[in-house]
Amino acid sequence: MLAQLRQYVPESVRTVQAAFEDLPLTATYDLVFAAASFHWTVTDGRWSRVAAFLEPGGVFASFGGHSFLADPQVEALVRVTRTPYLAEDDIPSPDGTSEDAALQWPGTELVQSGLFADVRQSTIVQRPTVSADFYVGHLATVSAYLQLDAPVREEVLRRIREVLPEQVSIAADLTLHLARRR
């Protein structure tokens, strides 16, 4: 993603390649934005570090969500195909929040930190139809698959692709969290 950003907006955006925990705290910003990535950050100090990057009143914005096949029969077929390699491919809540709770992670931790106000959560409903190749490419970016050894990951993705129709509908709702630094 960083290479794409540098390619399309090379002069207008200054970029740094580093883990969140290694970014220098040398400036503050009006916005800190994370796209389906904050579950990878170190839990201890996560929110105080975000707050340190923000101007007072600045906004933290995060979105993410689990995509799954909208057709239950195709989803079941993929689950059977995946199970010998990977029991689950969802991303569990880092703080254990149940899927039916009104406020989902990271909103729960943002509230608990006491560093943020106006914590809001919205869901953007998406039901696109995509090619099977596109869907398998998406799976290759999902944490559960990324944690597999490369040969195992390639094998399970190949097998999943073999059982998919050429076009698949996916339920790809995004959950957006916004919070203002106190």
Main sheet: which strands, in order across? 1-2-7-4
Helix fraction?
Answer: 25-40%
Radius of gyration: 18 Å
Let me know the largest β-sheet. 4 strands, mixed
The helix count comes to 7
Fourth-tier CATH superfamily name: Vaccinia Virus protein VP39
Report the uncertain regions: none
How large a portion of the residues is in β-strands, by DSSP E? 15-25%
Overview of this protein structure:
The protein is α+β, with helices and mostly antiparallel strands. It has a single domain (2-181), classed as 3-Layer(aba) Sandwich (Rossmann fold), CATH 3.40.50. It has helices at residues 2-8, 46-53, 72-82, 107-113, 132-139, 143-146, 150-163; strands spanning 29-35, 54-64, 68-69, 116-124, 129-131, 167-171, 174-181. The strands form two sheets. A four-stranded mixed beta sheet has the order 1-2-7-4. Strands 3-6-5 form a three-stranded antiparallel beta sheet. α3 (72-82) packs antiparallel against α7 (150-163) and α5 packs antiparallel against α7. The longest helix has 14 residues, at 150-163. The mean pLDDT is 94.
